[in-house]
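re: ur msg from earlier - yeah i can do the nicotinamide-adenine-dinucleotide complex, just paste it... oh wait u already did. ok heres what im feeding in:
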Amino acid sequence: MRPFVYDHPAQRVIFGIGSIKQLADEVRRLGASRVLIVSTPAERRFADEAARQLGPVAAGIFAEAVMHVPIETARAARKRALELEADCCVSIGGGSTTGLGKAIALESDLPIVAVPTTYAGSEMTPIYGLTESGIKTTGRDRRVLPATVLYDPELTLSLPPGISGPSGMNAIAHCVEGLYAENANPVINLMAAEGIRALARSLPIVVRQPDNLEARSDALYGAWLGGTVLGTVGMAIHHKLCHVLGGSFNLPHAEVHTVILPHATAFNREAAPEAMRLIADALGASDAAEGLYDLAVKIGAPTTLKEIGMPEDGLDRAASLATTNPYYNPRPVDLAGVRRLLQDAYEGRRPA
Ligand code: NAD
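and the outut:
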């Protein structure tokens, strides 16, 4: 067995249908009595529900979270937390909302109770992102890691198929790259393979029957595992490419993960054979990259960069950005190889 380091910060995770009812107990457990609740304007109903559950310990709601955490929004939310003398932040929503909670915690040490409503996985990571003057920077800081994460599958019932599918593929991407991470370890490998298995079997049901609570639970369980993998081991070419395409070309986060994943996997096919075998097995496919592509098609998710807004004349620049300061990757990252990968993803070719 390869030597490894297993460095996994403790988090409390509550998982279950109806677990939102435990929110007040969880906040009390942290010794908090003045809670700031954050959400997006579109998910304000979740913030209102959280306030109902919290009763008198709900100090206020900041329902202005937006994608990519603009610094102005972060500052306004931090100011609100100070004015309210908040001693805890409940973030309830997708990755954009969790991101705002993290931006508050980064400067205040407020403990976060995260209640995720998509499959993005940010709630399980010490990674934060902030956008200033159009440039998104990310960092790692244990202060932003939510103290408690409450997963209630009922909150995901309203996710439409067009968001559920790509969001689930985003979670699978964390698992795929975890399996060939530079600091991979046997425990995370188990979680990553199980995460792919759970999402691959549940997503086709979730998009056909969005109110199937059993499938929703399975998908959210897979998302938890994906987030744990992302928070614990390093990522590679796939995440680097998605960061470049999202940051420099403003492509939608979950969709770009969905389109790139089969091609990034094919790129690493020969360099990470054991990971490929585990991914293929978890998908019930004979090849990892083909299996991921076929899953995206099956759940009606996008398969081409073209359809999610990538300009073809931007592919050269994207390839060059992705190969400057590349992340670790099992196969050495070269400009020509990455440019080919991007062309395949642009056209949505099934990786052969
Ligand atoms: P998001 O939070 O923007 O949500 C996507 C869409 O789903 C939005 O329109 C939102 O209004 C809607 N939505 C959310 N929950 C819903 C529900 N239950 N029912 C109906 N609609 C719902 O996007 P996301 O994909 O969850 O997260 C993406 C963001 O998170 C990106 O900015 C990404 O960089 C960040 N992220 C960070 C990490 C990390 O570790 N720091 C990990 C993953 C993602």
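cool cool. The pocket of nicotinamide-adenine-dinucleotide is lined by residues 40, 42-43, 67-68, 93-97, 99, 117-118, 120-122, 125, 127-129, 155-156, 158-159, 163, 167, 230, 253-254 (CB under 6 Å). ping me if u need the other ligands too
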